Amino acid sequence: MVKNSIFGLGAGVALGALLLASPSMAQGLSGKVTSEAEPTMEGVLVTAKKEGSTIATTVVTNEKGEYSFPADRLASGKYNLAIRAVGYVLDGPKSVDVPEGAAGRADIKLAKTKNLAAQLSNAEWLLSMPGTDKDKRFLDACSSCHTYQRIVNSTYEAQDFRDIIFKRMGSYSPGSVPTKPQPLLPGPRGERPAVSDKDAPSASEVLANANLSQGPTRSYELKTIPRPKGRATKVIITEYDLPAKDWEPHDVILDHEGMVWFSDFGDQRMGRMDPKTGKVETFQTPILKADGSPKGGLEIDEAPNGDIWLSGMYQGGVYRWERATGKVIGYKLPEKMQTPSTQESMVQPKHSDVDGYVWTNDQQTHSLVRINVKTGEVEDMGVEKDASGKPVPGYGIPTDLNNRPMPLEFSGTHIGWFDPKTGITESFATPFVGSAPRRGHVDAQGRMWFAEYRANGVGMFDPKTKEIKEFKIKAPWGSPYDAQATSKGEVWSGNMANDMVARLDTNTGEEVDYLLPRETNIRRVFVDEKGPRPTLWVGSNHGASVVKVEPLD
Predict the structure, then answer these.
(1) Which helix (H) or strand (E) holds 204?
(2) CB of 78 within 8 A of CB of 51?
(3) Angle subtended at Cα 154 by Cα 152 and Cα 155, rounded to the nearest 5 degrees
(4) Residues in CB range of 328: below 8 A, 6 or more apart
(5) What kind of architecture, by CATH, is found in domain 3-117?
(6) What residues does each domain of the chain span?
């Protein structure tokens, strides 16, 4: 975690900034960022957060080292300042007054950090650690719960990692965080090690070679990712704090009224936030299993009628917030499907107006399940498999325009297309090797865009031609968790490692990577096209905040 980037933890926040492209736009606060080492500093994220507020605004310095906040983003008052620029810390000023009816000014001075290791992102640790990318790939499971800072600053030796850490960590729910661990129940999921017995010895060596087990000095060079340049500086980032630091906003969406909804990966709630004020309202989701199963939800989405649906993970079902009444209704899977390892990660209501069904899937049995919205009946549709009987296990299950699930095989390289009439899943292999399709979305043309997590790419499946096109993400350790396309052919993605969101133009191949103000464990991405430019919304799954990314070009 970047220590100088967290508001409220005593070190301040290292957050992001940008110079607005239009010089005629009224400025609420502006200035220049310099240091002794660099008189002109492009790509420094500058954050202003009004005292007592839950909303922080970030811009990025341009090629002249200048930053500017538009006047309509900063009301008059006292603002705390923070920066993100790897290798540097804020020397001063730490705060500034924005006067009523006039522009504020703050020229910011940076100093070289004395503790670079404390600032590295997960991706920068992956770049720095000894070993090949293949050797370090297993670490993506670790970032589900915490940053790599906990690993590289530890003193465990290889045998410790092998005998204790891997087995213990594999027994926790992926919705756990260090301050709120949730053990899994005994069973196939709870007894599975985080790393296989076969891979544990080599993985243990990788971690022991990266940490401080051999002494206080690291044996390898710390590598950093260059600061943003050019188009990547033309952005405004707004971060909304949630009421408690242990909230985990795994998925974030906007509903048809422009309200923000988020799931909580570690507790029984769904939240609604007003993006104008930052005010948060929560709705408790009922416990469906009284056996001590971990709490938390994952996918959240809006149905055509405005109801909000949430997957219940280890609670063995899904939830529906009914807009007409404001009540939360739980739908439990049939008893024959209920086991200690039952896991409903996904729920798909987006095309439920076609036939009246909402879809979910069980991650342990690889069965598809549909809910009849009118009657409440929960129906097991059987294991996702092709005509030969080969399973096509889906993680994400976006539905096509006819409400047919399209399972994404995160454990392999295939995508599927399920026919509810035959129970058969047509299977298609991705051209990228070891792609691990994870989550995705169907566009207005019926094409499915999906993240290829282990291939550092995104894919597009066209049901009309049954062909897959793929595009590489250039950002280091991009590992996209999710991908969503705009109507103009741009694809957005985010990941759990490099604190960036990628904006890829599939027509030209140009990619813009926006750095976020602090460590941001991104899962789902949601693109809003209602304004003049697309706006991206993500959750900071370990940072208890909702993040809005507004490109200025």
Answers:
(1) helix 200-210
(2) yes
(3) 120
(4) 270, 283, 284, 285, 286, 319, 320, 321, 322
(5) Sandwich (2.60)
(6) 3-117, 130-210
DSSP string, 366-407: TEEEEEETTT--EEEEEE-B-TTS-B---SS--B-TTS-B--
Distance CA(544)–CA(1), nearest Å, equals 14
Q: What percent of the chain has pLDDT over 70?
A: 95
3-state secondary structure 300-342: EEECCCCCEEEECECCCEEEEEECCCCEEEEEECCHHHCCCCC
> Which H, E and C letters describe 99-140, residue by residue?
CCCCCEECCEEEEECCCHHHHCCHHHHHHHCCCCHHHHHHHH
3-state class (DSSP) for residue 87: coil
Contact 145, 174 (CB under 8 A): yes
CA R_g for the chain:
23
Cis bond leading into 93, ω under 30°? yes
> Which tens digit of pLDDT belongs to each residue from 381-396?
999 999 999 999 999 9
Nearest 10 degrees: CA dihedral of 53, 58, 59, 60?
140
Asked whether the predicted pLDDT for residue 18 surpasses 60, the reply is no
Q: Kindly state the tokens that stand for 313.
A: 């993970």
- pLDDT (average), residues 315-324: 98
Judge contact between 168 and 160, C-beta under 8 A: no
- DSSP lists the bridge partners of residue 535 as 528
The dihedral sign for the CA sequence 247, 437, 421, 404: positive
Task: Tell me how long the chain is.
Answer: 553
pLDDT tens sequence across 98-156? 999 889 999 999 999 999 999 999 999 999 999 999 999 999 989 999 999 999 999 99
Q: List beta partners, residue 448.
A: 442, 461
| pLDDT for residue 44 is more than 90 | yes
pLDDT of residue 196: 85
Q: d(Cα 356, Cα 403) in Å, to the nearest integer?
A: 9
Task: Please name the residues in contact with 318: beta carbons below 8 A apart, sequence gap of 6 or more.
Answer: 309, 310, 311, 312, 330, 331, 344, 347, 358, 360, 371
Which amino acid does the sequence have at 154?
S
Find, among 524, 541, 142, the residue nearest to 346 by Cα.
Answer: 524
Residues 373/356, Cβ–Cβ less than 8 Å: yes
CA dihedral for 171, 176, 178, 184, sign (positive or negative): negative
Q: What is the pTM assigned to this prediction?
A: 0.93
Structure tokens at 28: 């609420």
DSSP for residue 246: T
Residue 11's Cβ-count burial label (10 Å; 0-12, 13-18, 19+) is middle
